[in-house]
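Possible regression after last week's pipeline update?

I re-ran a chain I had predicted before the update to compare outputs. Posting the input and the new output here so someone can diff against the archived version. Not blocking, just want to make sure nothing changed silently.
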Amino acid sequence: MQAVSLILTARVLGAAGYGALAGSVALFMTFGQLSGLGSGVALVRHMARGGELYGRFAVTERIYLLSGLVLLSLVLPLAIILLGSVVPPAALASFAIAEILIAPALSPLAYRYQAQERMFLSSAIGTLAPMARLAAIASAAFLNLHDIASFAQLYLTWLVPTVAFTLYATWPRGDNSTTCNTRQAIREGLPYAISGVALTAGSELDKTVLLRLAGEAVTGPYAAAYRIASAATLPVNALILATVPRLFRASSASNTRLAAIMLATVLGYAGIAAAALWLLAPFAPWLLGKGFDKAAPLLRALCIIIVTGSLRQYITALLTTRDLQASRNVIEISGVCISLVALFALVPILGTSGAVLAVAISDTVIILGGATRVRKNNQSETLHER
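New output (post-update):
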């Protein structure tokens, strides 16, 4: 589905339109990670350890709504200041509402099913917003609309009823009484929100910075190539989502064994996926259409991101499930800061190659920092057991 959406969006909007879309949506997706203030991950931890569902789910959904409204009022003016000269303000407003307020309302459902290890349903919930985006671009193609403002309005038009119906149909019915109030849920979840923002910023803000510094025509081929490379890491993401509840529950010894199996799987898959993408890269311009001639060399350069991105997901998941969330936050925030500095320093000199290098540097810093922290934690637990 992601492949179809990418190809259709690139062909309908063109390289410049796709660049404007990618750079603006990246900004909203990054701040959208603050919606819910981490209460969704806290819900997974709560349920994985035997906590009740109904009341806690209602509290979590309420936090997503209220925090989304506050974020929307703060981020939209910032986006207009930064990108208003490149992207129409009406389009920015539609994307902001979609990515900060509406789409995140589905997250508690996905987290609920993840905690219950019903991964098919969790993944299905996660595909609803992309499906609405695909329906919007298909509608734009049918109506012969090729501007980003029209696409943004169509996306919001499809997304709102999709989210509303899904929440109505799947809302857990039962006793909504809970011992957890809104303040407690926020306190438990906030550390996870920081890591969510850092993770998304590290993989998304390069498009926003590139759009700001180099324009939409340069950003378009880079963003399309990056999406293809990112899609190659989705199986790793699915593996991690499936094993997180078990890692939360596992003892130290079984946790270490499971982590070792995961590492071997992640490394093996990432190497194969990167090699396959390197060989298939020359077909990218043909698939994406006019204006994407530079996508092939960019895609080959971004093969390194498949390896570093997969390892980054693995390491950060270990930090979270071993109750090292504070360390994860520090490491990931450091990685984002390094990435932003590198982007602003390298993009004016190297263009899109500078963006690739900045992302690779950031991932490497996080991988090394996280691995060091996990190793120290393992050594400490071993000494404690003795």
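Follow-up from reviewer: compared with the archived run. The chain has a mean pLDDT of 88. Marking as no regression found.
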